[in-house]
Amino acid sequence: MTRLRPVRTVDEIPVEYRNTPIGLLFEYHNMGRSDAAYDEAKLLVGMCMDNRKRLNIPENFAYVIRTGGANLQYSDFKISFAVGVGNVQHLAVMGHNHCGMVNLVGKKEQFISGLVSNAGWSRNKAEEHFASLAPLFEIQNETEFVLSQVERLKNKYPKICIVPLFYDVDDNQIYLVEE
User: Fold this and answer.
1) How far apart are the first and last CA of the chain?
2) How far is Cα 173 from Cα 40, in angstroms, rounded to an integer?
3) Rg value, the chain, Cα
4) Neighbours of 75 (CB within 10 A)
5) In this predicted model, what pLDDT tens digit does every residue of 5-62 receive, in sequence order?
6) pLDDT at position 1, please?
7) Which of 42, 61, 165, 172 is most buried, judging by how many CB atoms fall within 10 Å of its CB?
8) Mind spelling out the 3-state secondary structure of the chain?
9) What angle do CA 13, 38, 67 make, to 5 degrees?
10) Nearest by Cα to 55 from 32, 84, 88
11) Cα–Cα distances in Å, from 22 out to 27, 43, 129, 164?
12) Nearest to 70 by CA among 127, 129, 13, 150
């Protein structure tokens, strides 16, 4: 069973993340810490492309990869770039509630009709597009999916600190995902 742990004060930041880029992410976003100047990124954040989320972080503090459902499955080269070239040692995988990648089948007709009317696609092309790619991006549960992404990435990047987070679009706060 997973649960969301609020982090609204410095004392609520888990000890292992205090004075790290993960702790600073909580301080900047949730606690309104004053911006500092950064010459290089300290953190990589993988998060959903959803337009309802905006991180309150200083310029140059983090690389940010935004992809549907925070699905980083097809972003390994970008992650490797941030680690190998950007020297990033901390990665936050951040899902959120009310994610559009949950129950894609329920959005099938809207998806297809939207491509037909907005993009000028034929209905057949839009249906094939949905059928071939929706299964790759469908997620069942936001927090469980984040945990699965973290597990996969920890196996791939064993020396990197990788943390599961959750953005609540209702209160605009970031939570720690715990098992």
Assistant:
1) 6
2) 25
3) 17
4) 18
5) 999 999 999 999 999 999 999 999 999 999 899 999 999 999 999 999 999 999 999 9
6) 58
7) 165
8) CCEEEECCCHHHCCHHHCCCHHHHHHHHHHHCCCCCCCCCCCEEEEECCCCCCCCCCCCCCEEEEECHHHCCCCCHHHHHHHHHCCCCCEEEEEEECCCCCECHHHHHHHHHHHHHHHHCCCHHHHHHHHHHHHHHHCECCHHHHHHHHHHHHHHHCCCCEEEEEEEECCCCEEEEEEC
9) 70
10) 32
11) 9, 7, 37, 10
12) 150
Encoded tokens for 101: 């990648």
Residue with structure tokens 């469908």? 138
- Residues across the chain: 179
